[in-house]
Amino acid sequence: MKNAILVTGGAGYIGSKLSYELLDKKKKVVIIDNLSTGSRKLLPKKAVFIKSDLNDEAQLRKVFDKYKIETVFHMAACTDVRESMINPAKYYLNNVEATRRLLEASKNKIKKLVFSSTCAVYDVNKKNIVSENDQILPKSVYGLTKYLSEKLIKNYSSIHNFNYAILRYFNVAGCDEQNRTGFVKRGPLFNNIAKNLAKNKSEINIYGNKFPTIDGTAIRDYIFIEDLVKYHLDILKKIKNKSYLLNLGYGKGFSVNEVVDEFQKYHNKRIKKNYLKQRKGEMSKIISNNKKLKYLTGQKIPKDILYKMVITSLNWAKKIK
Ligand SMILES: NC(=O)c1ccc[n+]([C@@H]2O[C@H](COP(=O)([O-])OP(=O)(O)OC[C@H]3O[C@@H](n4cnc5c(N)ncnc54)[C@H](O)[C@@H]3O)[C@@H](O)[C@H]2O)c1
Q: In the chain, where are the structural domains located?
């Protein structure tokens, strides 16, 4: 197999969806994943799967040579903000050092690299709506490891002659519309509610209802995974002699209550909202300034976007319950 595309973290929530999409477009896909939070169940059958850790540099070199890889989507990472504060060393090793090894193994071989970064890099104390050139001040070790990875990518790109797109995702939600892949882990709001409802547990814990927002619950810029992945492919086409740094969001948000109320429409019992103390360091609202993304992709946001994120989450949760 020649000129395959490498997806690191392709057994995870976003990586598996991207891999399906690339295969649908007849691309050859190689996935490297250590299955730490991903699952074999999410892997598309047509992809080549190599179970390996990114810190195994010798294995990485073999993969680059064998499959003549020129394009990399680097999605593998540990992503739990709270865990990163308890065990920072794990995050430096798994996110920063693993990125450095990936860059070492791929240098002078690849032409394009797309990196999954996060809005957790921004200084959220100052502004609720953040642009790409706003101040960087991650509150968590997770956010910091993503920012350090961005720096490494820029540095290697300037020396080793490849172009990149650093994509700062806001809150990714919803699942594959064909119900082939989705989330396995709990944590994000949509996953938690969908999993509860699929198990007929009609309740949800909500952390904080005294935020300075329309209804007191936190507001996030949720982006539908179908759109997120489509933007990856649009942007990949644009990376030729240029690199990009982009927010991936809709530039508008939904409150936790609004999300729960949308789920309520498709559930036959009343969903009990358990309001708990807000978590330490939790921000009230974060929204993307998505001007650059709109300009590059002609982004249009359908009116029923919340419905789509909710219904695909429910369909997936019912399938895997
Ligand atoms: N889900 C979101 O809302 C969101 C928001 C912002 C950024 N991101 C970023 O998007 C990427 C994908 O996130 P996700 O939600 O799909 O998470 P996920 O946990 O479902 O996927 C990550 C995958 O990477 C694998 N992995 C982790 N460390 C590895 C290593 N050292 N070597 C090999 N494989 C490894 C895991 O097994 C897993 O399959 C991450 O980089 C994350 O930081 C996600």
A: 5-172+222-248, 173-221+251-320
